[in-house]
Amino acid sequence: QVQLVESGGGLVQPGGSLTLACVASGSIFNINAMGWYRQAPGKQRELVASVNRAVPDYAASVKGRFTISRDYAKDTMYLQMNSLKPDDTAVYYCNVAGLRKFDWGPGTRVTVSS
Question: Which of 14, 38, 48, 96 is the most exposed place for a label (fewest CB within 10 A)?
């Protein structure tokens, strides 16, 4: 079973930027669709960005501000987040963007606040 570990979160002011990383303990090379999810306090987990065979897709709330990318050689995925807003505050997770997911990792907390 592949384990996913997210990192890169932190406290940032509105308008700031962060880059999240997701490292897989095993090969995810053959997983076509991977995604970044987030769960804000009191809300359900939602998919905010995915990449399927190098084709990205974004939730409307983050389009134009977030960029998802994968390094297939390193079994790593990234989420570049710009122009952060307080509504982006959440715990961010990576996983398969499909029905058959790996176990969820610990996530990385992003707090956007002045």
Answer: 14
The pairing of strands 76-81 and 66-71 is antiparallel
pLDDT in tens, 47-56: 999 999 889 9
Q: Structure tokens of 87?
A: 């509504």
Each residue of 5-63: pLDDT tens digit? 999 999 999 999 999 999 999 888 888 899 999 999 999 999 999 999 889 999 999 99
DSSP state of 8: -
Q: Torsion angle of alpha carbons 102, 28, 72, 89, nearest 10°? A: 0
Token readout for 26 is: 């095993």
Q: How many beta carbons lie within 10 A of that of residue 37, not counting itself?
A: 22
Residues in the chain: 114
